[in-house]
Amino acid sequence: MKKLTGVPISKGIAIGKAFLFLDADFPETPRFHIENNQIDEEWARFLVAVDEAKENVKSLRGVQKSGADERDDILNAHLLMLEDVEFHTQIKKRLERSLENIESAVWDVGREFYQMLMASPVSYLRERAVDIADVTKQILNILLNIKKRSLADLTEDVIVVTRELPPSEAVAMNKRHVKALVMGAGSQTSHTAILAKAFEIPAVFGISAIAEEVSQGDTLIVDGDSGAVILKPTAKKIEKYREIIAQASEKKVAQEALRDLPAETTDGFRVILNANIEFPEETEQALRYGAEGIGLYRSEFLFLNTGYAEEEEQFRAYADVLKAMKGKPVTVRTVDVGGDKIPLDIRVIEEKNPLLGLRAIRFSLAHPELFKAQLRAILRASVFGVVKIMFPLISGLTELDAALSMLEEAKKECRKKEQAFSSHIEVGCMIEIPAAAVIADILAEKSNFFSLGANDLVQYSLAVDRNNEQVSYLSQPFHPAIIRLIKRTIDEAHSAGIKAAMCGELAGDPRATLVLLGLGLDEFSMNASQIPLVKQIVRKASVEKCRALVKKILTCKTVKDVEIIMKEGGGQP
Ligand code: PEP
Ligand code: MG
What we know:
By secondary structure, the chain is an alpha/beta fold. Among the domains are: 2-23 and 149-235, Glucose Oxidase, domain 1, CATH 3.50.30; 36-143, PtsI, HPr-binding domain (Enzyme I, Chain A, domain 2), CATH 1.10.274.10; 251-268 and 447-522 and 529-573, Alpha-Beta Barrel (TIM Barrel), CATH 3.20.20.60. It contains 22 helices and 16 strands. An eight-stranded mixed β-sheet has the order 1-8-7-3-4-5-6-2. Strand 10, helix 11 and strand 11 (330-333) form a beta-alpha-beta unit. The longest helix has 25 residues, at 39-63. It starts with a strand and ends in a 5-residue tail after the last helix. Residues 63-68 have low confidence and may be disordered. It binds phosphoenolpyruvate (PEP) and magnesium ion. Magnesium ion (MG) binds next to helix 17.
């Protein structure tokens, strides 16, 4: 048994078999020392793997007999490579010299061949590089017993173990069979993390050595509450965790009983608890957990696998969400592509610093036709419920003005086509760049509401990439600077007579609830499954005490000081 600790991402506990999903050109391989007397055995494993790979290729060639000449050429080339004397000789030499397992020798030699061919000025040889990579990968997959390559094809319950899972893969995976997700990279606010929470899949990220530590089929316990991943647990440990799972499900039942009760403190301070969604289907879950509305609909997820959606497709999706929410408000955030978000073919220019590049509202303003199509789709859907529009990553008034005038143009276009839309649509901006928080008073003049995007506010204020686990320790939402920026935003919203919401992960973080109440936040929008817990905390809290707590916190100089005060005040750090 061995315990690894990572960043707890999505709550819940799962016990199951590991499914290594290492979808790189060259799968990550365990690397270990072998003795001289193991060389023959390792070499024999290689030859068996090569034979199996050849059989696989031949069977594919058989399927392709009727006419697919090109494909047959490639498969023939692969067969030749699998038998290539030089390739075999180099691998054997590496095995004998390095005294490391055969997978390491195959990996190293395959990589060297690949790099050598890739560096060639002759295009034929560069093309062969791709083939050698493919062949190396096939051998490694056989040696490592990695069979399935798509998480969509899963047919049995597994715990997915991966170095990095792009959001598009996370969406495609067969969620019914993914009991937990363990990832080497990633942090709380990465988009794969957001999806894991949306799908209610327990997840632990940021264990960089995970691929080396876990083997295919190992039994694992994943504790998404604490961030623990237990490898090959004892029967006693499994028993203990089964008890914890049973207790947690009782607790959940108790929390869900609060569903129809208001989120109101003991001294009568009422707040709104909304859900964040990425897909229309999530409205069912939002309502089940008692969301009073959708505080953030991440509309860019519509484009995840399909490219930029047409106006009609967008209209249908927004209309579906509004209908499903039956009059409860739905805040559609206009697309936030770029940065670590959804890649789009339209974004043709490579960016050195995508997080500081053509992202979110900048992308929309750079593509007015796409932007207006989205705005028209939202306007037209507005007749099905209460819609609000929110612009992401606003950095200043000029940008907000430009977005608002696009909205006016979109309205004109709808009127011209006699397309009906609601006359009362609130428009707000996300406060997620420090500059926006600093000029909140100016932005408030043109906004019907604010929504604090705490994920990005932390990222940009503390200069810490939200997807980089190496610096995730600096991603500190309780940093005095962040608390001051949040306070400033809420205060300026209230001075201008508008509401302040928050839709970053912090809004659903139970450690933050008392502080956010004390700061005067009006609306909290979070992953739906967090709503019952946050509501429970709100209903037990006194806003007066929360305000006193915040007063003390505002005198703190360090994160540590803040956390000490929070603990004393009944918060949870
Ligand atoms: C945020 O930045 O806090 C936010 C809610 O937006 P996203 O996570 O989609 O960037
Ligand atoms: Mg954001």
